[in-house]
Amino acid sequence: MGASQSPRSAQVIDLDAMRQRQQAQKHLVRLAPELDGLEMVYQLAASPDTYYGMPILAWGLREDGNVVGLVPWMETLTACHKVNSQENGYFIGYRDPETEEIFDTPPDHKYYELTAAAEYFEYEASGEVTLIQQIPDTLGTHALCMNHPDAPWSMKPVYGWRLYSDGSIDALLADEQKATMTPILLSDKCLYSARSCHQSVYFFQRHIANRILEEDPATLEALAMMVVPSE
Description:
2 domains, 5 helices, 5-stranded antiparallel sheet
């Protein structure tokens, strides 16, 4: 006769908790500005034979130890490898304009810089979301701000970026009426977080922002298609 097997209780797996832990490993814990002109290379589905370059704003160290390039893209500061839209562009790699080399992983020196800084500026986690770091915007990024689809929009220069303890990043804009000195610096009280005051924010490179401000017809038409949901 075969031995009877003792009943075993089913193991309960909390998938939601597992997803939260995996997501936490992707949180950014440190930023390093890109000051040597390295670029993100991307392509458009409409131009498969053409490569486009976009300056990288910064590099970010994630909780899992990986380093990612970061660019202002659409509605947020986005990891380069997550740029994956047939219409707006998809990531190809990184490029050093000086050597014209294209590579698919972040440079080693940025990993060493970020890990050393994260170790030196290690913070104690708390139950509240706190400010970890601020970096200046060095690309002339602009934010198109709207509080309602039918309300007037405003184009404002981005002065910097804030990294919070939950891994979120927000742009720093200025209330010019509260500015008391020029140029505006990251420590000035006239700066505020974009998401705290504006319902919708879209980020643009400097040359695109200036075309919008000059009311270039083709640029405004493309803008209308992007920010107004199709019916």
